[in-house]
User: Fold these one by one.
Assistant:
Number 1:
Amino acid sequence: MTKFVVFILIFTLIISTSIIKNSTKGIEDEIYTVKENLLFLESRFKDTKLEFDFLSSSEKLMEYQQLYFENSLQIKSLQEIKTLEIYNDEIKIGDLKISGKNDQ
Amino acid sequence: MINNTNRFIPHDNNDEFKYSKNKADLDIKFNRVAFIFFVFFVISVIYSIHLIHLGSRKSDHQNKNPSKIINKLKRADIVDRHGNFLVKTVSSIDIGINPAETINQKKLLLNLGYIFPNKNYELIQSKFKKNKFFWFEKKISDENYEKIMMLGDKSIKSEEKLTRVYPQKNLFSHVIGQIDDNNNGISGLEKSLDEKLKKNKETIQLTVDKNIQFLIRQELIKYNKIFQTKGSAAILMSVNTGEIISIVSLPDFDLNKRVKIVDVNFINRATKGIYEFGSVFKTFTLAAAINEKIIEPETEFVDLPKSLTCAGFPIREYDNKIPSTLTAEQILIRSGNIGSVRIGQKIGQEKYKLFLSKLGIIGGINFDIEEVGIPVKFKWGKCPLATASFGHGITTTLIQLVKAYSIIVNGGFNVDPVLVKKNKKNKKEKILNQDVSKKILPILRKIVSTKEGTANLANINGYEVGGKTGTANKILKGVYSNKKINTFVSVFPITKPKFILAVMLEEPQINKDYIYEYRDGSNFRLKGSPRNTAGWNSVEAAGHIIEKIGPILATKYNEVY
């Protein structure tokens, strides 16, 4: 009887191991496919970002400004930039300081 | 007749069969099976070892030049503090042609002419005649690669290569540096981070900001033209963290052109150039005296002479209108040479030397790029102490100057300039007394805000700029020349310093047509610079830089505090 129980136990373990192994193999394949797709997308994202960084580089932006927004974009001095804070439904407008929000 | 009973019958037992389970026989059989298994096992082990060996060994080519193979695999990208690409590795394809394998030369040339209409096909035809492999086009686009491969000619050979692309062109040429054809860094961060760039998959983030860098560079180029300088440099750094937000050295170069830089004028003036900066050292002299509790800003120096003689050489005031009785504070505001000598003498050689080494002024410093100059060894003595007190005869680099000023104004904490962003914050080490910053900062402010000061043109409304000017004669072939090194080290906002901006102009000239707008509220305009001093050129440039970058720093830079 004991031998039979041990045999059944081992047999069940073998069967369950092979089933689990089979299903994990499927998951592994899926993970691999997702990883590969991710790598491809990451590479495409980086290439697109490179293009964006080049086209939005300061030099290019200045070129665009001269081409399209020469009169509409103006340099603002620090005094013209204000801070807006809401305390208990009250709006407080303050001067922007170089020391930053943390120090105000 | 023989009697059977008496007959002797020899008994032969040999033919008798008797079966019994012989244990020894079974052992022999088992041993045979085990032996066969053992033989198979040994054979399989030998094969496994052989396979592992084959799998792990390197090719002869790889053994000869391992770095070349590893180098070609990857090189990490570099981004600025906001994640904008400064360097990006992209794979490119080079196309070569082996004429010996061409099926139909005329047809191939005709097709290539459609894809690449701007190429010189007479030259290509001559290469075909030589019947040797040649590179037809390097770094072709994906679209053209597809087209050329569609031709299906087996003489066309393609090779994938890695290329570094620099979307910001000249902006960070001195910081990023260059790589050679074998993908090895030869200057800048490409050299100092070479191994890291090859091993790392992740991008490397720097502390610099491309927009601020652009604005500073733009202003510096403008003032290089106005004052016809030989070159210039500027550093913007956080005084508390040491993070460099911008570092510009002019002239610079476009990294994408991959030109070999041999002209000495392209030296990194911000880190490699060693200069005498002149009066900016007077701040160190006063700070050292306050740190040693020898004098206070109010300490009075009575009857200061207009000139001194040291080892046969005269030491004079640059401005004869300077009063003969001055407080220590007034000496720094009016940039008095004689007064600074007197303060230096009070401190003494050893203490002053120790103070300068604490600030990292003398001797080299560790920095993220290798192009860092080591100041000329200073021979201390009675006279050298006197001259060093007002910044004469003692050399350093602009980056060290920025470091030293940061320590003086940030409460006396040691700070190391960094270019590569670190996740961990270093523990702050206090190396000066708290008093030093408290007492020096109002004086630096007065240099900019009062009429007696030398840096009024940088008094930008809303930024509380403080700083110190330095005008020094340049040494050429071991002799002092008339050419100048004009420097302005500014700190802002003075009530709680956050940023330090140093601007250095090399060999500026007087501009007779430039119009100065006074920043004292008088709206006074002055045509032409009266003197070739830092107050009339470096300060003007720094003022305009602060005006431009200030709003960005105020709105976006809370995190560097």
Number 2:
Amino acid sequence: MSSYAYLLEGLTIRRVLAVTAVCAVASAAVVWLFSNTYPDLLVSALCVGYTSMLLFTLAGNIRQAAFPQEAMQVAAVVVGSCLGTIVAGLVKQRTIAQMFSERLAGVLITMGLGIGVGCVVVATLILREKHSRDQARFHRGESERHRLEKNLLEAKLQLMQAQVEPHFLFNTLANVQHLVETDPPEASRMLESLIQYLRAALPQMRESSTHLGRELEMARAFLDIHRIRMGTRLGYAIEVPEALRERTFPPMMLITLVENAVKHGVDPCCETGRITIRAEESGGRLRVSVEDTGEGIRPKKGGGVGLANIRERLKALYGTSASLVVEERQPHGVVASIEVPAAPGA
Amino acid sequence: MSAPLRSPGAERGRVSAVIADDEPLLRAQLRSRLARLWPDLAVVHEMENGKDIDRVLEAHSPSLFFLDIHMPGVNGLDAARAIAGRAHVVFVTAFDQYAVEAFERGAIDYVLKPFNEERLALTCERLRARLSERPPRLEELVESIAARLGGPGSEHLKWIKASVGNHVRLIPVEEVLFFQSDEKYTRVVTGESEALIRKPIRELLDELDPVRFWQIHRATIVNVDHIAAVRRGLKDQAEISLRGRDETLVVSRAFTHLFKQM
């Protein structure tokens, strides 16, 4: 029994009181139409009102998809008014036959009035509910928008802060310090790469997009530094057609993928590893990928933080028309690729 | 353990040391600096990471380890754990603010990369004075630093591997809205895509972070971070709507208590 209690949900004391009040007022307003006394009319009105209310509540709670809920509720009021009028007649100890012969006029008027008043009440209720639903949807939309804005802001902030990892900087400088003593030309090459990397990584206020060429140079400088630091373990290749270097591309995304490839891909698996950066354009889409031959992603190991940042920023910049996909490479390693709508550089 | 084999360097009364750093140039640099500052110190072994500490201790019985904190595989903190007081330890780091503070508080020897000649000389001097004493116990300090630096991380699933065509796609779990069993597969649904995996709901439940992933139905696990609203539904069930997706999920009776108001 209790499992059907939801059918009566919304049948509150407030609703009962409201229906009672409407019946009292409506009876008072139309009592001059009838030969009946006010109390007699009120009994009829309450029978019609309560029956309609009960059916209206049921109609609002039944889960079905065949008819819109509003239609069900209006139908409930029509049926309720007819049923309620008959109930009122029974309460007054008249037979059904009587109701549909000598008292037919009164019965029809009661039914009509019930339907009329009921529909006005239902329309008011439905409109009010719709309004509050709209309001709620609006608030939900607002909070979703706020959430997206907050995420974007956080992503931007993180971008501004984490451009140069201190670890990377100091370790690189330690290498330079050693090379200055042992292999000055190599030291100078490493410093040059570091300067190039820093120039790309520490620009003024960063625009929302740069061109692919600049991001590639930054990645190259970063990989050059790591190639010296990791000895013979790291090899890399950049396979990007010259024509694509002018394409617009959001900043600091490629370098995140390259960093991941070094840090989570090649670095932990203590042999040699190779990183390949590719770009291709087809069907108006620019796809830039970073592939490593490392140990691959272990399902329980983290490393998606930089990726979440990229996703947020792609969503903010391109909506649903950009994507970041991470895939396993055969026989081992990972390919991460970013796809954006192709746009020639400004 | 058998009687430690004395390495040739140690036999002549010199102090023997091991250097562990994943970058070859930095090992060479420390070695050459130490040769200059501490001629009696013999670097008897070099390591790329902290693997096989027992074997190194047995083969070289060094009295001193220089351990880089960040090394792939077995890092410096893990190596210090393995040494477990059987040799003195000097930590080497490029930038770990918290670790440095902890070292200062715990009076533990450490050096920063790039090396500062004076600082390295001071460390060598202190070590010389301390070598005759028993190596200090580092467990507590190492654990606190390890916890702070992230350590081995939790054992929860962070990536879902799903076949899409010929490729295996890697989906970070935080992007998954929900998992739902679909006959013999499990659907993995994100805001942008959908994939099928073979791992059943039951197994996923054991491996996912229970704070974020809740079972709401025999066949469904939802990521609570993506829930937009929960509504009362048919019978004693509830209905969940998700951010960025029209599909709603049913919370079966057995799980509605998860969403009861506090």
